[in-house]
Design brief:
elongated; 4-stranded antiparallel sheet; two-stranded antiparallel ribbon; 4 helices; Alpha-Beta Plaits; 106 residues; single chain; alpha+beta
Length: 106
């Protein structure tokens, strides 16, 4: 960074997310992405950045954060994601996020 401040980057994705779109359509897939982004936003500070990098990949930029702290943030997000459930689709609740495995890179 220009001011020589430390920062960390977390990249997370939803493994096998394509199955959600293939089996239940992009409307449900988009809803899952919205829920994931919202939950991730709740776990970071206002000075941090969050963005969608690709189809189901997300990047988090943590300002002023060492890698050990970034790992803790990533684990906190991952644990919350595993607890998510209940995406409503056609009058039926799907528990996709509870069962989808997560990959994490810090």
């Amino acid at each position: 960074m220009r001011d020589h401040h430390k920062f960390s980057v977390i990249m997370m994705d939803i493994d096998h997310f394509k199955k959600v779109n293939d089996n239940y359509g992009h409307v449900l897939g988009d809803q899952v992405l919205i829920e994931v982004a919202g939950l991730m936003g709740e776990e970071i500070r206002e000075i941090d950045g969050l963005g969608r990098y690709g189809g189901e990949e997300f990047l988090v930029v943590l300002s002023g954060t060492e890698s050990s702290e970034a790992f803790q943030v990533a684990e906190r997000i991952r644990n919350r994601m595993q607890g998510m459930c209940c995406i409503r689709h056609s009058g039926d609740y799907k528990r996709w996020l509870k069962h989808l495995p997560w990959s994490r890179y810090t």
